[in-house]
Amino acid sequence: MQLQKKADMECVVQGIIETQHVEALEILLQGLCGVQRERLRIHEICLKNGPNLGLVASEVRLLCDLEQTEPSWTVRHIGGAMRGAGAEQISVLVRTMVESKVSKNVLRMFYTLGYKLDHELLRVGFSFQFNRGAQITVTVSSVNKMLKLHATDEAVPVTPGIQMVEVTAPASAENYTEVAAAVSSFCEYLAPLLHLSKPGVSTGVVPTAAAAAASLMSDGGGTTL
């Protein structure tokens, strides 16, 4: 199995937005980022280890990019979040993360190692990647569940009418403070449409979303900040 490792930490925030306002969010992101969006269709398989691999639970996610002519696979292991007074004072979650490109036989290998399928999802949407004080990626996607094993063509929405928004940026032990500040600063521009917070903190949709979306749709998002 071929491995190509990247990043050891990341800063991340998440939020939700009603599907009816996604087009307005895309207009806003286009104006802020100045780059074209990339289409997103990711088959995500979550595996957890069996009891024979030790007492510490382990979870890995296999991501298959279905937008590629030849689907490519990535394995991602998300570790623990940074703790302590410093972590509480910043508005983004800083966590360890290892991600590697792998060959297509990776699923068979993890099954051989004793991992078992926990769940699988299909994420469909778009993303923007750009540099704004840090290398930031914004992903907007609907989250869908499979009714049959690996049946991506039959996936149905987990939360109809709602899409997930995630903002991430790679970081290191030396620069995570600066990266977290860059992510927080960028998220302020999105505040009229959605609230972004640390994963696991439910904030719901924002009451100003409808008015902000209507304004963006009427002027076409022509302002670049």
TrEMBL record:
<keyword id="KW-0539">Nucleus</keyword>
<keyword id="KW-0805">Transcription regulation</keyword>
<keyword id="KW-0804">Transcription</keyword>
<protein>
    <submittedName>
        <fullName>Mediator of RNA polymerase II transcription subunit 18 isoform X3</fullName>
    </submittedName>
</protein>
<dbReference type="GO" id="GO:0016592">
    <property type="term" value="C:mediator complex"/>
</dbReference>
<dbReference type="GO" id="GO:0006369">
    <property type="term" value="P:termination of RNA polymerase II transcription"/>
</dbReference>
<dbReference type="GO" id="GO:0003712">
    <property type="term" value="F:transcription coregulator activity"/>
</dbReference>
<dbReference type="GO" id="GO:0070847">
    <property type="term" value="C:core mediator complex"/>
</dbReference>
<dbReference type="InterPro" id="IPR019095">
    <property type="entry name" value="Mediator_Med18"/>
</dbReference>
<comment type="similarity">
    <text>Belongs to the Mediator complex subunit 18 family.</text>
</comment>
<dbReference type="GO" id="GO:0006357">
    <property type="term" value="P:regulation of transcription by RNA polymerase II"/>
</dbReference>
